[in-house]
Amino acid sequence: MTTTVAFIGLGAMGYRMAAHLPKHFAQVYVWNRNFAKAQQHAQQYQSQAVPLAQIADADIIFSCLPTSQQVDEILQQIQPKAGAIWVDCTSGEPQAARAQAERLQQFEVAFLDAPVSGQTIGAENASLTFMVGGDEHAFHQARPAMQAMGQLIQHVGHSGAGFAVKAVNNMMMAMHLCAATEGFSTLKAHGVNLDKALNCINASSGQSFITQHALPERILNRSFPLTFALPLLAKDTRIAVDLVHQAKLVTPLMGLCQSLIQAAAQQQPADSDFSTAAQLYESLNKIKLE
Ligand code: NDP
Fold first, then answer.
1. Which residue numbers delimit the 6-phosphogluconate dehydrogenase NADP-binding domain (predicted)?
2. What pLDDT score does 245 carry?
């Protein structure tokens, strides 16, 4: 039996992720709000641009939208067929995943929260990490389709667990971004050469994804290329802090980091890369990281 796979949301991530599906599946439907993008995708990658209603015929439906709210809006408009699996790659809200899974269960449709990490380059190279919450049987059924776009495909627990892992991951990334920006501002204030300092730190215990990639490739070279928008990072840190509040935990660093990322997102235009959060510190300290 041929598996029909569909992809909703051809943004910075979705466009590149869906590009791999036609290599593995004979029938791949794509839909995007700005439909010209879906048509361009079809031309470029041999997917099939279809109206939203037709997406409901697919066996496995991926979505990758900014927030759970847009996923809800789409879910109101289509009803997948019984036995279908909805794999939501949005970095969404754990509570929304549980509500969506419950609602779709009535129609015998499984919902997996399956956010990804690896950035647009990981989407391009099919090397993403999928962190998946929800029904394990559905996970195993949808796994080959996720494998077409990723490297590590990890079931992490009940419905909502995938979104929780993603929010905490991005909170930790945001903390590293704040930590590295503060550290390098201090070094610059003391007249230290930042490139040489970076060489040392990347060979030492202070290193992170931020010092290895974001600092040299986005901040110190002043390119700040837009691949992951700052408002999306602010959304992720907010979800992480919501999880903290729900569990009544004491996590002062997470609260502080969320405030800083939120302040940076308010300062910058909406289409700014997450790395421009460093510019909040630059304006406060009057120190440019270059
Ligand atoms: P983009 O802003 O690039 O793309 C958003 C997509 O959602 C577009 O296809 C857009 O359609 C669509 N969309 C927006 N609003 C609506 C709506 N109301 N109804 C229907 N479609 C809508 O986002 P990304 O691809 O960067 O991010 C998508 C998700 O993936 C987010 O949750 C993000 O946090 C997460 N993520 C992003 C990463 C990155 O590096 N960029 C890395 C890992 C996760 P249109 O083209 O019409 O505007």
1. 4-157
2. 98
pTM of the model: 0.97
Please indicate whether residue 166 is annotated as part of the active site: yes
Q: By alpha-carbon position, which residue is closest to atom 39 of ligand 1?
A: 228
Residue nearest to atom 40 of ligand 1 (CA): 119
CA angle 10, 12, 150 (to 5 degrees): 85
Residues having CB within 6 Å of any atom of ligand 1: 9-14, 32-34, 37, 64-66, 70, 73, 90-91, 116-117, 119-120, 227-228, 232
164-285: which CATH topology? N-(1-d-carboxylethyl)-l-norvaline Dehydrogenase; domain 2 (1.10.1040)
Instruction: Provide the pLDDT for residue 194.
Output: 98
Domain with CATH 1.10.1040.10 in the chain: 164-285
Only one residue has tokens 């120190």, namely 287
Helices 161-189, 194-201: crossing angle, 10 deg rounding? 130
CA distance 114 to 280: 32
Q: Please tell me the predicted confidence (pLDDT) of residue 1.
A: 61
The class level of CATH for 4-157 reads alpha beta
User: Residues 232-252: what's their mean pLDDT?
Assistant: 98
Please tell me the residue having the least CA distance from ligand 1 atom 2.
11
